[in-house]
Amino acid sequence: MGKSLKVGDLAPNFKLLSETGQTVELKDFIGASPVVLFFYPKDNTTICTKEVCHFRDNFDEFKKINNAEILGISSDSVDSHKQFSKKNRLPFILLSDADERVRRLYGVPKTLGIVPGRVTYVIDKQGVIRHIFSSQLNYKKHVDEAISALKSI
To answer: Is the pTM of this model over 0.70?
Structure first.
């Protein structure tokens, strides 16, 4: 596991494949808009589905706040993300971190050493981490915390 990042750290750049099979790089968003980067355990599980749908249902709110971009990351495959995104009509990008390299880069912990953690990072336009929220079960608070953090930057 990588070192845990802190508020004020520069968000490490990464490249991952999206649900459409395109390469997405964090630095492509830096300078243009803030980014809400949320790591979640697994597609099609109860809490994860509720979390992505809560981000979806608040998507317009994120767009109103400095046109923030939302990126969801799990270790599921591009195909799994494609189906999950379509089924839940997600208006934002899902990224496949199959080898968990980016999860380690960001120091996202595992619960009980097994279940991938659920952590949300709010990154400003300059690429600086402005807020970190971690909760395995309180999926709604990930959205609320991200909106609140975006409003404060």
So the answer is: yes
Q: Which residues are catalytic?
A: 48
Q: Is the dihedral of CA 67, 34, 122, 14 positive or negative?
A: positive
d(CA 101, CA 98): 8
Tell how strand 15-18 and strand 23-25 pair up. Answer: antiparallel
Domain coordinates in residue numbering, the chain: 15-151
Query: For 123-132, how does the pLDDT look when each residue is reduced to its tens digit (9 = 90+)?
Result: 999 999 999 9
Which residues share a beta bridge with 38?
A: 72, 120
Q: State the pairing for strand pair 69-74/93-96.
A: parallel
Q: Which helix (H) or strand (E) holds 103?
A: helix 101-105
Reply yes or no on whether the pLDDT at 15 is more than 90.
yes
Homologous superfamily of 15-151 in CATH? Glutaredoxin (3.40.30.10)
Least confident of 15-24, 52-61, 136-145: 136-145
